[in-house]
């Protein structure tokens, strides 16, 4: 059996090596390292893939979120509601811009932001909601967009983990993750579903004016050379990363399907285990159906309900099965984001999830032998 890895970027590279190397070589030959034609071409390719009017590439996913918030003109003191159970980047940029983060609990089935908790958290100061499409599946965008409309709030989608996922709205319309709110942000960090070979990110919007504003912000607030109209940042996707992403984008759907395939096999093996809850996919499908493209499994995350999650982590590590705990501490209990307004009773789900979740190896190169070994190792422990 091949050594099991949490993420197998090397194996994936071997499959696309010639094309990637050729495209990188071309950039080395032309020296168009910054703002080269590959960046513009990738931007167009991604606009087509996502069916969105504007993609603005930038340096990483954290910048993408920050720049999206700057573009919307959010002001210090504005309250921004986001999920307590996510990677810290989401809340970090809110705080960095001196906006007020308002963390709320999540849904126990999807791990995504809880709709009732959003409603409860809204005050006259609330200006935006940041749903995070955690682990590869969209938050309940119908409900979020409806709340936003009713309260005149911006919706900023943190799509760092769900690029390529589709969302089926209750009206029957299918949209790509990240393109439904006023603005979406994504990351091309190497281990993300569409990863480059360094750092990268992008912002999406269908709003022409917002796109124009953001294009200036990423470039030092310049709309005309050496005229700085607003305070901006320097945040660029470089040409080599754009070339890598351009080679990988046509394969993204196949990559997502490979992840779903692995997830289906995992869930089939774990289905009747009493101490394991497998991930739920929404959009009406039961468990992980064969046609569902609503989940792209950035992570495959189980809940271990017998209180032995930490022991399982040790057992898997000792048996050469890598795993991860995303995330072990709720953001509302992180030192940097403590706020006396947060009450433990308002976070029952996150507080439970941090004790139960475990993410198994998930990437495009998992084979059946590895999956069988992983599932039987997990089941052996949980039943033992
Ligand atoms: C990865 C990630 C980010 C940040 O992306 P970087 O490119 O690492 O800056 C933001 N939000 C979520 C949910 C992420 O998973």
Outline the secondary-structure elements.
Blueprint: H1 9-30, H2 37-50, E1 54-58, H3 61-71, E2 79-83, H4 89-96, E3 100-104, H5 115-121, E4 126-130, H6 141-151, E5 154-158, E6 166-168, E7 174-176, E8 183-187, E9 201-205, H7 208-217, E10 222-224, E11 227-228, H8 239-248, H9 252-270, E12 276-277, E13 300-304, H10 309-318, H11 348-356, E14 357-360, H12 368-383
Parallel strand pairs: 2-3, 2-4, 4-5, 5-8
Antiparallel strand pairs: 1-9, 6-7, 8-9, 10-11, 12-13, 13-14
Helix pairs in contact: 1-8, 2-8, 3-4, 3-7, 9-12
The protein binds pyridoxal-5'-phosphate (PLP).
Pyridoxal-5'-phosphate binds next to helix 3 and helix 4.
Number of separate strands: 14
- Number of domain modules: 2
Q: Which hetero ligands occur in this complex?
A: pyridoxal-5'-phosphate
Report the average pLDDT across residues: 95
For this structure, what is the CATH class of the largest domain? Alpha Beta
Helix content: 25-40%
Spatial order of strands in the largest sheet: 1-9-8-5-4-2-3
Low-pLDDT residue intervals, each spanning 5 or more residues: none
N- and C-termini, Cα separation: 24 Å
Number of helices: 12
Q: What does the overall shape look like?
A: globular
Quote the beta fraction.
5-15%
Topology pattern, helix = H, strand = E: HHEHEHEHEHEEEEEHEEHHEEHHEH
Q: What does the radius of gyration come to?
A: 21 Å
The biggest beta sheet is recorded as: 7 strands, mixed
CATH topology-level fold name of the largest domain: Aspartate Aminotransferase, domain 2
The CATH architecture name of the largest domain reads 3-Layer(aba) Sandwich
CATH homology superfamily name of the largest domain: Type I PLP-dependent aspartate aminotransferase-like (Major domain)
* SS class: alpha/beta
């Amino acid at each position: 059996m091949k050594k099991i890895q949490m993420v197998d970027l090397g194996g994936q590279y071997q499959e696309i090596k010639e094309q990637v190397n050729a495209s990188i070589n071309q950039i080395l030959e032309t020296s168009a390292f910054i703002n080269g034609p590959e960046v513009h071409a990738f931007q167009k390719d991604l606009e087509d893939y996502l069916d969105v009017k504007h993609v603005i590439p930038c340096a990483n996913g954290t910048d993408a979120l920050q720049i999206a918030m700057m573009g919307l003109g959010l002001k210090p003191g504005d309250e921004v509601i986001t999920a307590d159970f996510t990677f810290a980047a989401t809340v970090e940029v809110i705080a960095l811009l001196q906006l007020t983060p308002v963390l709320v609990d999540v849904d126990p089935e999807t791990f995504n932001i809880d709709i009732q908790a959003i409603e409860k958290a809204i005050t006259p100061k609330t200006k935006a909601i940041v749903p995070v499409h955690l682990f590869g599946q969209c938050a309940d965008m119908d409900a979020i967009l409806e709340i936003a409309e009713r309260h005149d709030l911006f919706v900023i989608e943190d799509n760092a983990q769900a690029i390529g996922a589709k969302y089926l709205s209750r009206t029957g319309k299918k949209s790509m993750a990240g393109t439904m709110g006023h603005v979406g942000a994504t990351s091309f960090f190497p281990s993300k579903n569409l990863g480059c070979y360094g750092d990268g990110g992008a912002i999406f919007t269908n709003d022409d004016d917002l796109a124009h504003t953001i294009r200036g912000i990423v470039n030092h607030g310049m709309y005309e050379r050496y005229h700085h109209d607003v305070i901006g940042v320097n945040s660029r996707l470089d040409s080599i990363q754009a070339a890598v992403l351009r080679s990988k984008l046509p394969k993204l759907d196949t990559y997502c399907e490979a992840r779903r395939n692995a997830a289906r096999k995992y869930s089939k093996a774990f289905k009747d285990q009493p101490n394991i809850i497998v991930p739920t996919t929404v959009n009406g499908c039961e468990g992980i159906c064969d046609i569902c493209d609503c989940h792209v499994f950035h992570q495959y995350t189980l809940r271990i309900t017998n209180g032995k999650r930490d022991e399982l982590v040790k057992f898997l590590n000792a048996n050469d099965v890598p795993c991860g705990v995303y995330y072990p501490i709720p953001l509302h209990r992180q030192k940097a984001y403590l706020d006396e307004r947060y009450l433990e009773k308002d976070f029952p789900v996150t507080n439970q999830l941090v004790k139960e979740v475990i993410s198994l190896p998930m990437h495009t190169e998992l084979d059946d032998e590895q999956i069988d070994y992983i599932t039987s190792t997990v089941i052996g422990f949980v039943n033992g």
